[in-house]
Amino acid sequence: MSLPRYPEYKDSGVPWLGAVPAHWGICTLKRVASLRSGESITADSIETEGPYPVYGGNGLRGYTDGFTHEGDFVLVGRQGALCGNVNYANGRFWASEHAVVVTPVKQASITWLGELLRAANLGQYSVSAAQPGLSVDAIASLGVPYPPIGEQLGIARFLGRETARIDALIAEQEKLLALLAEKRQATISHAVTRGLDPNVPMKHSGIDWLGEVPAHWSIFPIKWATSSIEQGWSPQCESHPVDSPDEWGVMKVGCVNGGIFDPAENKKLPAELEPVPAYALKRGDLLVSRANTRDLVGSAAVVPEDHPNLLLCDKLYRMRTDHNICEPRFVAAFLGTPQARSQIELQATGASSSMLNIGQSTILDMPLPLPPISEQIEILNWLESQVLKLDETRARVEHAICLLKERRGALISAAVTGQVDVRGLS
Known about the structure:
The chain has helices spanning about 30, 110-120, 135-140, 150-195, 330-335, 340-345, 360-365, 375-415, and strands spanning about 10, 20, 25-30, 35, 50-55, 60-65, 70-75, 85-95, 100-105, 125, 135, 145, 200-205, 210-215, 220, 225-230, 250, 265-270, 280, 285-290, 290, 300, 305-310, 315-320, 350, 355, 365-370. By secondary structure, the protein is α+β, with helices and mostly antiparallel strands. The strands form 9 sheets. It has a 6-stranded mixed β-sheet with strand order 4-9-7-8-5-6.
């Protein structure tokens, strides 16, 4: 819809603002609000439940027995990759040292103030690349508009209504994404455990968690179709991936997440370290993560082409199958089914849920329902076409979500900087 503009504007003299409504004031942020870091709190003092929420730089961290603030406040992330992000807190809460508490020093709507700071893109004022930290002095000296309080409240009401509408549309699209993910998983799972012929005779696999499979399929441990299995190495690497095919890189465990091999998930090998070419990835290598979070450990994907300068890491198993009886892509697809995932997660070990491990036997001893090689290829070709359609639909939905979020951000920015006259809309 076309939104009205104010009848008269003036140059704010502030580069990021440009022109603002003629009757609005211009001042530095510190004339509108004070910015103070919260108080330090130890991790041992933060629980999953408690009387008072604890807010850090990225929002809610947990709960504790005390509080540092009471009322309605804007919080700005002070450190980390998301420094400069904006959250809100109300009631009694503890603000940690990683949050900057924004307290109005003159009459101001909390919602208007928070969304103004969001529109200002405060992350650009961070310093130190290793551990970004917000320069509070820089943002305190930032030039900002100051509309009359009545207009601030009107902007807050307008944004509350309009962003709620956009958020509802985003939520619907995200539901569709979830349904597409479920259908993708179900399509793959059904194909690699039941086949493509709905009328084929079935037999019980003899394995409770697997259930019935086509009567002419074989069932044997994955190791029977495996010619080799090994782990790589994990030297101390650079924090960034390789920049050219001439550089050596070591794969990160996340290169198999989602069942698709991602060669960009690597870390550059330092020039002073000698590479081990035997660990170079080859077409047809089946990679399985042996150490990761509970929902990612055991993720599997097949390398589609040779990567002579990308090396296997020690958090990945590399398996090679006998191609006369087993396609590695079929094994990878089976390892991603809910049935196989349940067994992997059941046998994963580790003191922390953030890093669990699986032994080689977890994969090698797992029963594999296997059709003849010609049928495997038929199933894989069919899956490729079906998954491609689903992925294309997913890409369109993700693009729609991206556009909605851009529209949301643009609307907020336009309202808080006076590019939209909301006086007759709120």
